[in-house]
Specification:
0% strand
């Protein structure tokens, strides 16, 4: 795939991933209103799972770049996770801060590994 086409794919899929993230986060947050950022957790865990699945399935280099860097890069969000963690600290929600800091990392490793195992089994 040519460089321009590849980078255009990353840009388009990244924009689409951001729109999907907004939709998923909004839907989860409306369904489960809470001080805890459930929407961001769901987005980041599903993104970790899908990336593990794509890597495990040995998706071709260009397709993995567009899907992983483009779509999933736009879909998942490290910055929002950190801002929400900091917000919990500002609000004195130290227990929720600790949960929001640790759970996504631990669960993210588990779901990415599960996705990789499933992807590898599908090869």
């Amino acid at each position: 795939m040519s460089g321009l086409l590849l980078w255009s794919g990353v840009a388009v899929f990244g924009a689409f991933g951001g729109l999907v993230r907004f939709g998923v986060d909004t839907a989860v947050s409306r369904r489960r209103p809470s001080d805890f950022p459930w929407g961001t957790l769901v987005v980041n865990l599903t993104g970790s799972f899908v990336l593990g699945l794509l890597v495990g399935a040995s998706l071709g280099t260009d397709a993995l770049f567009v899907a992983g860097t483009g779509f999933l890069g736009g879909y998942t969000t490290f910055s929002t996770w950190m801002v929400e963690t900091e917000r919990l600290g500002e609000e004195g929600e130290l227990r929720l801060l600790a949960i929001n800091w640790a759970m996504p990392m631990a669960a993210g490793l588990v779901v990415a590994g599960a996705g990789w195992l499933i992807g590898a089994a599908l090869r």
